[in-house]
Amino acid sequence: xxxxxxxxxxxxxxxxxxxxxxxxxxxxxxxxxxxxxxxxxxxxxxxxxxxxxxxxxxxxxxxxxxxxxxxxxxxxxxxxxxxxxxxxxxxxxxxxxxxxxxxxxxxxxxxxxxxxxxxxxxxxxxxxxxxxxxxxxxxxxxxxxxxxxxxxxxxxxxxxxxxxxxxxxxxxxxxxxxxxxxxxxxxxxxxxxxxxxxxxxxxxxxxxxxxxxxxxxxxxxxxxxxxxxxxxxxxxxxxxx
Length: 241
Description:
This protein is of the alpha+beta class. The chain has helices at residues 11-18, 26-42, 106-119, 135-140, 149-165, 167-173, 183-208, and strands at 6-9, 51-53, 64-67, 75-81, 84-91, 214-215.
């Protein structure tokens, strides 16, 4: 084992990750971040041409950078100290000296990253928005538990409105929800609505829990969640609290 026990997330990391939430491959990038962390949990010295430390003689010494995709210029900057791995910032090749360019940026980037590391752990980014046209969009989101609890409540209210009006269903399908011919499709849609409500109830419970640091040895699906065990939430009947 590598000795890495905790994953720390900085405010700068969440802020710069937030800039990528509208990226068409955001979920893929989240998976890539998880992969990079898990490789370090397994082997602290693991390095490749795309995941390596900066020059130990330069301003960026002791800082690692991992390019997360060959198709997109997205880079994760992180540090390791003792039993902690700190996710410091998301950026791109324009943030640091690369291929003879941006030579003057190493100092400012180093200061930015170390200031973020020293500021300590930030539990959650408290995301503010999630747009959906089908309840499956809510189920597909892997960062519900990172949302502002007020936003989670707003989404639950939107689901209840949809239960009453089925307006989004009719807009997306051009079908009338009260037409008996569409019964099977309506029931299937209702099942997704109920699953989305259950997911929001579980996310709200996770968001309410306080914690200091993420345990790096948690399974990948829990990597971004709190260290406290949370029972699977089947939730109350749909629409109730």
